[in-house]
Amino acid sequence: xxxxxxxxxxxxxxxxxxxxxxxxxxxxxxxxxxxxxxxxxxxxxxxxxxxxxxxxxxxxxxxxxxxxxxxxxxxxxxxxxxxxxxxxxxxxxxxxxxxxxxxxxxxxxxxxxxxxxxxxxxxxxxxxxx
Length: 130
Fold this sequence. Notes:
130 residues, 8 helices
């Protein structure tokens, strides 16, 4: 047997929680399990496990699973403004991921009239020079 595939008892117990998680198979358990995996495994180990899991699934399943996971990780579009637009924007920025923030920044910037784009860039350059 390949030495990389032989499991010592100590290694096997390291992942016993996965069997219980798979048995429960619900969203709360998935989130809790992801936290345990993040704590117990290095980034390289998590990436390797992800590759193995992806290769074990059919391509259409991979796309479906990835879409569901990414949807769950995104904040979605900003909510309609309420009484305090600045506070609402600050809240949305605190829950949105970097890709969402970049997409909205790009779209907002390019929706501004030329003079406001120029004013905004001047403000940013001045702020960065401090």
